[in-house]
User: Which sequence fits this backbone?
């Protein structure tokens, strides 16, 4: 049986397979970037690919707590846009 890595959502705290979640990465230069392919270096925080979880993560400042620093509003807008595009692609 093959091992499937799992991660915890920063909003709802449920555990899901890593490839079903959206990753936000804090890069070495201190910037934040959406990482849909899960390949960027740096600290990562995961959120479920659901509108409710994304809105809850933004409302609760879950990424701020996970990274222990403020995440820009542009990153949140990029996250919302990515989720909407992936939802319509289904």
Assistant:
């Amino acid at each position: 049986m093959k091992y499937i890595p799992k991660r915890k959502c920063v909003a709802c705290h449920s555990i899901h397979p890593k490839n079903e979640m959206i990753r936000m990465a804090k890069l070495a230069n201190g910037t934040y970037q959406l990482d849909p392919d899960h390949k960027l270096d740096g600290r990562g925080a995961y959120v479920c690919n659901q509108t409710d979880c994304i809105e809850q993560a933004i409302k609760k400042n879950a990424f701020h707590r996970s990274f222990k620093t403020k995440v820009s509003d542009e990153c949140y807008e990029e996250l919302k846009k990515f989720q909407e595009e992936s939802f319509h692609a289904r």
